[in-house]
Write a structure and sequence with these properties.
By secondary structure, the protein is an alpha+beta fold. The chain has three domains: 99 residues, no CATH class; 130 residues, Jelly Rolls (Sandwich), CATH 2.60.120.1440; 73 residues, Phage tail protein beta-alpha-beta fold. The chain is 32% helix and 35% strand. The strands form three sheets. Strands 1, 2, 3, 4, 5, 6, 7, 8, 9, 10, 11 and 12 form a twelve-stranded mixed sheet that branches. α1 crosses α5.
């Protein structure tokens, strides 16, 4: 993040300038009155000044990190002409260094689900992440940013928006930045799909240097080889059905249905006839119970499901009329 370029950063810089000014022997009663007025203007000013004090107080804990001018500031004698400038320079540098330190010292928290398992995680800011079957995420939390890495699977993000602390989901070279929203991200073997249910997200493709915004009711996909695709309409009912333990298919080819069921159950489907795999299926099914689905698909499509050796299920064309 560029130093002190956002609203929060500008207020923090003002707070640091006031902090330095108050340390000066030349600080007048009028200066202190103006400072009190500035401090009383808003809660953001008071929080920023407390942060400036904290940065200065934490300098001893940053002693192992090289901060230009820190030693000189500690040894400095009160010299009205030089001390305020030196203090401000060191304080601003320390703030940036502290930001780096806090950013990279934070421990990563990992969450995962097993096959067929679903889990809900509430983060410190109230944001919630619903994890679908066979999903792994890594949450990187710091005082400067909120970042989640989707390593595999699918997750639905309900984000508490904070303009000063962006919420970013990363998957490979794709980053998804919250703009106040609720969105679903799924990592396939060869692509990542994103669907926005509420609000808006910003997609950034680092590999192909392209950005795009998605709003509620839109979805898109990303491939490493080709980058971002074209925006399409998103079916909210179908996308979030898994959070209720349901799978919704709408004119979905049987081959895709079988692949989806393999995510939830330790089975492998073999479709004997490629043409059969192109037959489409519509309906809502219990994600946790395979037997009702097999019974239903035999009634809806010209299909017979036969369990072969182990956990293999062969789907072959039925001869019934």
């Amino acid at each position: 993040m560029p130093p002190f370029d956002g609203p929060h950063d500008r207020i923090l810089k003002q707070a640091m300038e006031w902090f330095v000014s108050l340390q000066s022997e030349n600080c007048s009663d009028e200066d202190r009155t103006r400072f009190s007025a500035w401090l009383a203007q808003s809660e953001k000013h008071r929080a920023a000044y407390a942060e400036a004090e904290q940065v200065w107080a934490s300098m001893d804990s940053l002693r192992k990190i090289p901060v230009p001018g820190l030693d000189e500031a500690r040894r400095a004698r009160p010299q009205p002409s030089a001390l305020p400038t030196l203090l401000l320079s060191v304080l601003l540098t320390a703030a940036l260094t502290a930001g780096w330190w806090y950013e990279f010292r934070v421990e990563t928290t990992r969450y995962a689900t097993a096959m067929g398992e679903r889990r809900s995680v509430t983060l410190a800011d109230g944001s919630r992440i619903d994890l679908n079957t066979s999903t792994r995420i890594a949450v990187h939390w710091s005082r400067w940013s909120r970042k989640v890495e989707l390593e595999s699977g699918e997750a639905l993000f309900s984000v508490t928006h904070d303009a000063h602390h962006p919420f970013v989901v990363e998957s490979g070279d794709l980053s998804i930045r919250d703009v106040g929203t609720r969105f679903d991200v799924r990592k396939w073997p060869e692509q990542v799909t994103i669907a926005v249910l509420e609000g808006e997200v910003e997609l950034k493709d680092a590999r192909h240097a392209k950005t795009q915004r998605l709003t509620a009711g839109e979805r898109n996909s990303y491939r490493e080889s080709t980058g971002l695709g074209y925006r399409q309409r998103a079916d909210a009912e179908q996308i979030e059905a898994w959070t209720h333990g349901r799978l919704v298919f709408k004119h979905t080819p049987l081959a895709e249905v079988a692949a989806e069921l393999e995510r939830y159950h330790p089975v492998r489907f073999v479709i004997a006839d490629p043409a059969l795999g192109r037959e489409t299926l519509s309906g809502a099914f219990d994600a946790d119970d395979l037997a009702p689905f097999l019974n239903a698909v035999e009634k809806i499509l010209p299909v017979r499901a036969e369990r072969s050796s182990g956990d293999t299920i062969v789907l072959e064309r039925s001869t019934r009329r």
